[in-house]
Structures are given as structure tokens and as C-alpha cells.
Amino acid sequence: MNLQDFISFLFKLLFFFALGVLISIFADNIGKKIGKKKIVLFNLRPKYTAMIITAIGGGVIAILSSLILSLLSQDAKTYLFQMNKIKQEINIYKQEVNKLKQRYDELLSEVNLLITMTHLGDIIFIKDQPVFIKSIENNKNIKEEIYNIIEEANKSIKQKYIYSLKNDQTTETIYSNLIRINKNQLTDIIKKIYSNPNRKYVIIFLASRNIFLGEYVDVNLYLLEDKLILKKNSILGEIEIKNPDDIQQTIALILQELNNIQQELIKKGKIPTDNTIGGNINLSDIINIAIELKNQAELTKMKQKFKILLINRNDIYIANKFNVELKIITY
After folding, report:
1. Coil/strand/helix, residue 204
2. ∠ CA(289), CA(293), CA(299), 5° rounding?
3. What is the three-class DSSP state of 331?
4. How would you label 124-149 residue by residue, b for 16+ Cβ within 10 Å and e otherwise?
5. Claim to verify: residue 59 and residue 110 sit in the same structural domain
6. Count of other CB atoms within 10 angstroms of residue 253
7. Are residues 245 and 213 in the same domain?
8. Quick one: which of 140, 141, 133 has its CA closest to 157?
9. Is the dihedral of CA 182, 183, 187, 188 positive or negative?
10. pTM to 2 decimals?
11. How far apart are CA 14 and CA 308, in angstroms?
12. Which one-letter DSSP state was computed for residue 14?
């Protein structure tokens, strides 16, 4: 019990103590006066009449005192006037809690089932995970381009995962290959592209459920406008090299800067896929630039400062791939 609760309790205790004293004094005085006057009600003896009037007077004082207490104390007001409403709300909350517990049990059962299934086969895609992302390049023959993208997605998944197809098919399936797509979604996407032929789009394949090894890959299709994020020849980042003789450190700094660039491009709207944002650079290029930097530092034999610039060689859109060039500068 904190200090505020203790003071509130003490106040209520003193109030009821004073109320009891007041009722006792009032009842004693009323009883004496009525007894002396020998007032008679309902043909009762004066003694019983005095008792009835004294009891009524004490009850009136108790009621008035309770009303006064309700004005002084929010707790008393709540108890006197809102208790039934609170009880109803408590019952409603109990019902909601029971529903939540029931839903929790259902979700727990689903999780346990999922855990059991993972022991039977590996999950290759979780629900709503991007399966394949591709920019639409040819807006003149949309239908053919979409089918080519679907075929490319099939080949991409085949190359990355071992799978075994089942023979069941549904009426919603348009491809008897690995990926299964809803016809209506495909039709709507083609219509949308036809209605805006001058825009550049990106199509995203999202897993419509958890996909286990050996199952068809059921996907939902989403279409986004493939907006320009950065124009070509933009400087994506720069690294100040303080010790060009340390090749290993230079490589580590370049890899760290590439990771920073990836995070910044994602913030600007770049969609990552296959754990990358689509920036193409070979590890051999990074090693070669580190070696070249060391050689330049040894040839100059001067205390020059070096920087490595990271430059994109083509426009960067939401989903396209782009080439990254490393360039050494001195200052």
C-alpha cells in the first residue's frame, strides 16, 4: 500500500467513525425527546414509537452521509452508483478473455502443427515472402513478356531448390510448371499495364502460403510502378583509406560500405531479393582494387590520402539490377 492509498483509507476510516458518533448522539437525543413527549404512532406504545423514529432518523443520517462521502471520494461514488455497470463490463471482459484464450490455443495448435510439418520437410518460402521480382521491360507485347517472366521465375526456383512436383492441378492454375498463379490476378495485371503503357512496372511474386519442399509454389502477383531511385554515374558512397598497405582492411571497409549502401537504397524504396538489392560487383574486383591501391601508395612514396568511390553505372530502379564500379582518387 502506497502513501496515497493509506491516506485515503485513513480518511474513510475517520469519516465512518465520525458518522457512527453522530448517529449515536442523534439517536440518543431523539429517543429521549420522543420518550418524554410520549408520542404515539399507529396505536403503538410510546416506547416502540420512539424506537421507530430513532431508527428512521439514524437511517436518514446514514444515507446523507453516504451521499456526502460519494461527493468527496471517487471510489465511494463508483461503488454506490456504477457498481452494476462495472460488473457488466467485467463479465464482458471475461468473455473477451475467454475468446482470446481460445484463439491462443488455436494458434498454438497451428504452430505445433507447423513445427511438426517442418520435421517432415523443409520450408523453402514462408507466407508473403517474395519468391521472384522482375522489372517489365517490354510494354509493347505485355502478355508475352509476363509469360516470359513467369518462365524465368520457374527456372530461377528450379536452379536454387531441390523439389518434387505433385500431380494435382486446380482450375485456377495456368502453368503446369512449378509456380501456380491465379488467372484473375494475371488478367488484372495485364489490363492495368495495357491501360498505362508508358509507365515502367515491376511484378512481384509473393508466396500465398508456407511452401514446403516438394510442393507447388502458389503465389500472389503484385504490380508496382518501377520508379527511378538514382540516375547512373551517381556516387553511392565513398571510403577514406588511412592505411592502403593493409589489403585485408581495405576489403573489409569496401564490404562494409556496400552493406551501408544497401540499407540506404532500401530506405529509398529499393526492393531486396535473394538477400541483395541487385548491385553487381565481383569479389575479384574488390580484391583487385585493394591491391591496386597498395601499389599506388608504394609508387608515390608520398603521404597522399586515398579514397575509394562506389559509382553505379546504370540507373537504379525499385527492382532492377545495376553495376557498381570502384574508383580510386587521391587528394
Report:
1. strand
2. 140
3. coil
4. bbeeeebbbbbbbeeeeebeebbeeb
5. no
6. 18
7. no
8. 133
9. negative
10. 0.49
11. 81
12. H
Q: At what angle do helices 3-37 and 46-72 cross, to 10 degrees?
A: 160
Structural domain boundaries enclosing 36: 3-81
Burial (CB count <10 Å: 0-12, 13-18, 19+), residue 194: exposed
Q: How far, rounded to the nearest angstrom, does the alpha carbon of residue 116 sit from its chain's CA centroid? A: 26
Reported as a single tens digit per residue, the pLDDT across 70-98 is: 666 666 566 556 666 777 777 787 888 88
Question: For residue 312, which amino acid is it?
Answer: N
Residue where the block lists cell 458518522: 19
- 34 pLDDT above the threshold of 80: no
Give CA 274 to chain center in angstroms.
Answer: 22
Residues 152 and 185 in one domain: yes
End-to-end CA distance of the chain: 70
Cell digits for 215? 510442393
Does residue 222 sit in the same domain as residue 272?
A: no
Residue position matching grid coordinates 549502401? 261
| Number of domains into which the chain is organized | 4
Specify whether the CB–CB gap between 54 and 92 falls below 8 A. Answer: no
